[in-house]
Amino acid sequence: MEDNINELIINEAKKRLKSGKIKNNADLENFIDNLIQPLYQGMLDTELDNMLDYSKYERKKGSNNSRNGYCKSKKVQTKYGTINIKTPRDRNGDFDPIIIPKGENRLGKFEEIVLSLCAKGMSYRDISSTLKEIYGVSISKDQISRFTDTITSVVDNWLSRPLKPFYAFLYADCLYISVTEDLKSDKKAFYVIIGVDCKGMKDVLGIWCDKTESATFWTSVFEDLKKRGIDDILYTTSDGVAGFKGSLETVFPKTKAQRCVVHLVRNLYKICPKKEAAKIIQRFKKIYTSTSLELAQLELENFKEEFSSMPKVVEKVEEYMQYLEPLFEVPEEIRKAIYTSNSIESVNSALRKVTNGKGSFSSVNSVYKLLYLRVEELKEKWNKPIPNWNKISIQLADINVIIKTDKNVKVKSW
């Protein structure tokens, strides 16, 4: 049967090609498009036939229901284009079509297509133009906005989902995004936290907006993580934001906090003379990449001697030593994993691509939705442990941390 239908369609296309009705690819696409509307219309009519148990022009005695014409024509968006459909009616109003449900005017998973394009950072205007160009479907910016509204509950559940009991590493970093409230646009801080579990797999644990910039913000974040199931975190890496370390010590007192060296480098660069900046940063790198604290202190002395004419730079590097010294208490592979928040920097860079150029967002929730979509797309590539995880897990075991499974993680000593 299927072969016969295919043969009929192909033969009809051949006839039109020979008669000159199909002259190019556009004519062929129109021919295919014209098949879609009768197909859907015929399927709806057949659905009503099956419900009434008799065909359109038959009469069935004893039936307490019958056809009652058609509803007003409506436009339905399919992945092949827009078609006009009239839904058949019955007198009792019992007909509930499956092919094109009542009230439905979009078919072909358009929501998924729109959300996918949003996740790639396309503007609503660009998405509308793309759908028009590829599918011949006109979808307004308001409709696209309504599509994204459909995932509000999904995002809420994701932000409050249960987490694993143990994470070896936790990285925190910030995005500043403009949000309009009370007719005023302000940049708000959105903190993204990534965790690396006992198998070396990373995941975005959540996104938090610091709306009030209060001293209790980080306490509420860590309490949220604990409430969602986290019992132990070995190391955290952050940019030294105010309140982070103190709140961490309150909620997770055994966790060790590390300042992100990349942020230290950036801050140092800001006070360097432009002509000497590259050289200064290179010499500073020799300090934090030393293989031991003794060598790091030796490199510090060399740094002080070489740049003695720049007291502010030397003073800043001496200040930073308090953040670098703890790095040399752990083996090299762990040190590399915690002295930088590159894992989250790359994620935040990808998130910025979908928020930059969007102007001011209408609400904090609209930011959450867009960031969630982007995170879900990024996670598709996170199917391997972090680099050097085999060595890291062995080194963690050597410092009395026994990693077994998600449900069986023991910390012997700190």
Radius of gyration: 31 Å
User: How much strand?
Assistant: 15-25%
Total count of strands: 11
User: Can you tell me the overall shape?
Assistant: elongated
Mean pLDDT: 81
C-alpha termini separation? 72 Å
- Helix percent reads 40-55%
| Poorly predicted spans | 402-407
Strand order of the largest sheet: 7-6-5-8-9
N-to-C series of helices and strands: HHEEEEHHHHEEEHEHEHHHHHHHHEE
Judged by helices, strands and strand pairing, the structural class is alpha+beta
Count of DSSP-assigned helices: 16
Largest sheet: 5 strands, mixed
Descriptive account of the structure:
There is one protein chain. The protein has 414 residues and is of the alpha+beta class. It is built from 16 helices and eleven strands. It has helices at residues 2-19, 25-52, 110-119, 124-135, 141-149, 152-159, 217-227, 244-251, 261-270, 277-288, 293-306, 311-324, 332-338, 342-355, 364-379, 389-398, and strands spanning 67-70, 74-78, 81-85, 88-90, 166-181, 184-196, 202-210, 232-238, 256-259, 401-405, 408-411. A hairpin with a 2-residue loop joins strand 10 (401-405) and strand 11 (408-411). Helix 3 (110-119) crosses helix 15, helix 9 (261-270) runs antiparallel to helix 10 (277-288) and helix 10 (277-288) runs antiparallel to helix 11. The longest helix is centred in the N-terminal third of the chain and has 28 residues, at 25-52.
